[in-house]
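User: Could you check the structure of this?
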Amino acid sequence: MSKKILFPTDFSDASKNAFIYALQLAESIKAEVVTIHVYQLPQTNYINVSEYLHEIYDVTELSNFENYKDEVPSLRRIAEQNNLGHIKISHALILGNLVPEIKKITENEKIDFVVMGTKGATGIKETFFGTVATKVMNDVKALVLIIPEHCRYQPIKKMLFLTQYKSEDTAAFKTVMSLSEIFQAPVDCLRVASAQDESLNDIRADWKVLMEHQQVVFHSIEGDDVEGIILNFIALHKINLIAMHVYHRNFFEKLFEISLAKKLAFHINVPILGIHE
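Assistant: Sure, the predicted structure tokens are below.
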């Protein structure tokens, strides 16, 4: 059975940029891409508009359809410009709320990946963890790949798995290693613990046996500046895909609550893969 990638799009530049990642992923895993554009009807709170509601909704739906019809060919052009015109792509225009519709489609259509872009200029945390991205990563069971607005496509050559080396991370770790084989990309696993952290026992030894012949390096760094350590690690090791088990989302959100100096010093333009429990 062919794998499926769901690509929600608002046809923004950030979204179109992320589409290249969706196409390249489809090429790597032999998948088809399903694009969806979800729209809502306007809220009408005026007292005397009831007699005009039908016309308002008709005009809105027609406008959405016309915009959608005009934008869809641009996605096909992106595929052809990247020599990926052979990828099977289908499109859907849906009336509803974005996150529930994404969740419903991933379940009904047995979607393997959701790939979506993020945009925003109000800081790193807002860019990566806007309302939609957070909800999709938290609520959707498929693998969710989030592409930052200014992240330009490059082949996945080095992956980072953020972990605490606990047994509940084992399934996510196996998923990361499966992707490592597909991309032919080595994996760095990283645990950052404060000096006061007494829970030093972990299952790295079990993972080493599990992945004896694969390219994986296990790291554990002690320090109180968790955010700085991770950001330095990303830069030092030339990481171009970060993977995390979704139950660590609070930890990961904390990662981006950093000082202005660090926001200016580090430009995080790396895709983030959320692996659900």
